[in-house]
Amino acid sequence: MSPRRARRGVDGRDARVDMLRGLALVSMFVAHCAPNDGPFRLAALTEFATAPLFALLIGISAMIADRGNAGLPVAFVRAGVRAAVLVALGLWIEPWGAQVDVVLVYLALPTLFAPLLARLPDTVLLGIATTSWAAAPALLSWGRTRSTEALVAGDDVGHRLWDIVLAGPHYRLTTLLVFTCLGIVLWRWTRGVPAWSAGLAGLVALAGAALLMAAKTSGRLAFEPYDGSHLEIVLEVLLVGGFALAWFAVVPERFCLPALAAAGSMTLSVYVLQIAYLAWYVREVHPGERDDAWGNVGVLCVGALVLPMVWRSLVSREPWSRGPLEGATAAVTRVIR
């Protein structure tokens, strides 16, 4: 079989990438609100998969955006705008009161570095990812010491920066960077090999993830979501890398679920709406209680699938049809040439 060509939607976007981003949203809703592990413990997997999948998609998006731009300086400035939007939005919505560790600020640095990473050869990217993986536990321990020292000294900015780069309780650059590099390498690889090769590699990786989870469940291996251990990162690489490979190999060439693709193209706006809803839920609907309920998962999933379609039906002009926040960001980055 010949290598597969990239599939483009009617608006020039790759619908498979948007749909995968939409699935990442669903995974996020389950991770945030599922009250138990669900059937076959699938809900437990979302705690491992969600943030790595978003970071992997940053790498894929950088590869797609890189085509036809004016060079690294332009790409870097545009990425800087997107990163600044993530930071500003993250700092804005964090105090709303949702029982969520807002990931936007943590994703800003991978977003900023992605254009540079997209221009590096695979061997260098794999070296960066391997080094980040190998050093992650030691850097986490060292970073938490520095973060605590900054907090004791009253240095709130320093404390936050240590958390973002090395010591966050759930997310940190040293881990997310592994998946941004992985996304770039996987995207290149799937463009140059037959579909069956990518699919087979994805299934093997998913089988490896299943074995690791089985060993964890039986008590033979000990690791937890967000713990920064070598085993946690290996599981996540197998899980999200394998799923992405299988996804791009199996999804039919012109297949598109419009609601899922619309949600995936409007991820930032949907994320902010999610935080607003969960903050309202724990402040007004059930004060003092947890937001863990399958009902909340359902509300968020339905909202993520319906609201972007409603927006697109009302707003047809590009780039605003992508979403209120996405449109504003794209309007700014388009003038940078």
From TrEMBL:
It comes from the Bacteria. The keyword Methyltransferase does not apply. The chain crosses the membrane at residues 43-65, 72-93, 99-117, 170-187, 194-213, 233-250, 257-281, 293-311. Signal peptide: none annotated. Keywords: Membrane, Transmembrane, Transmembrane helix. The keyword Transmembrane applies. This is DUF1624 domain-containing protein. It comes from Dermacoccus nishinomiyaensis.
